[in-house]
Amino acid sequence: MKRRTLLALAASTMLLSACGQSTTNDADTNATDSAAKGGSDLLQRIDDKGTINVGTEGTYPPFTYHDESGKLTGYDVEVTRAVADKLGVTVEFKETQWDAMLAGLDSKRFDMVANQVGLTTPERQAKYDKTTAYSWSGAVVLAPKDDSRYSSWDNLKGLRTAQSLSSNYGELAERYKAEIVPVDGMAQAVQLVKQDRADFTMNDNLAVLDYLKKFPDSGLEIKLTAPKSEQTGSGIVLLKGNDAVVSKLDEAMAALQADGTLTKLSEQFFGADISQQK
Fold first, then answer.
1. Which candidate, 277, 276, 241, 263, places its Cα nearest to that of 75?
2. Residue 105's closest CA among 236, 250, 251?
3. Closest CA to 128 of 242, 43, 251, 41
4. Taking the model in full, what pTM does it have?
5. Can you tell me the distance from the alpha carbon of 183 to that of 192, in angstroms, rounded to the nearest whole number?
6. Angle between helices 205-214 and 261-270 (to 10 degrees)
7. What is the pLDDT of residues 109-136, one digit of tens each?
8. From CA 83, how far away is CA 98, in angstroms rounded?
9. What is the pLDDT of residues 12-51, one digit of tens each?
10. Which residues contact 89 (CB under 8 A, 6 or more apart)?
C-alpha cells in the first residue's frame, strides 16, 4: 500500500511538471508570435479599431497648434487624424513640451509622436522607427522676385546673405562663400532683404513657405531648393519593435498620398506640396 501511494505521488508530480512545462512553452510561443507581429498591445488596439495616443506640442504652428476656436490643428495633427481615419481607429493627442516629447514615448505615455521629428542622429535611429515621411524640408534661398542671379548654388559666391551666425544656414552660406550680414533671426533677415541691405537669406523650406503663405505680397520668392540628398523627411515616430504597426501606418500614408489628401493638407497649411521630395 505504501509502495502504491509513493508511485501515485511520483506520477502526479511528473504530470504536474509536464503541464507546467507545456504552459511555459505555450506562453513563450505566444510571446514570440506577438513579438513577430510587431508589438502586442498597440497592434491589438489598432486591429480592434481602438484608440491610439499621439504626443505633440500644440504650440508649434503651422505643424501643431490651437486655432482661434481653441481646436488643436496643424499639418502634423491633420495628417495624423487622416491616418487614423484610414485605419479606423480613434486618435487622442497628448500635448507636451518638445523637451519631453521623446521621453514620453520612451515611458509609453504615448504610442507615437507627430511633431516634425526627423531621425537624423545615430542615437535616434537606433532607438526609434519612423513611418514614410509626410513632409520634406531642406535649405532654400529666399530673394526678391525680380532678382535673376540665382541659377545655381555656386552663384551665391560674393552675394550678401542675412543669417544668424550660429545657425546651420549661416554655415551653409559660408560654404558657398557668400558674405554674411549678421541678424538675430528670420524676421530680421527678411526685412534686410526687402530693404536691399542683403541680397538673400537662407532658411528651412517649411519656415519660408509658412512666411510666404502669410505674406503673399512680400515681393520675395524661393530661388533655390536643396537637392534631394540634403533634404530631411519627417514622419510619425514610434519605439522600435513595432514593425507591424509601422507597416500599417505606411499603408495608410501611401493611400493618403495616392488619393491626394497629403497634397491637399500641404497646400492648406503651406500653399505648396511638402509631402513629396522635389
1. 263
2. 236
3. 242
4. 0.81
5. 9
6. 60
7. 999 999 998 888 899 999 999 999 999 9
8. 22
9. 433 333 334 333 344 344 433 444 444 579 999 999 999 9
10. 45, 46, 49, 50, 51, 52
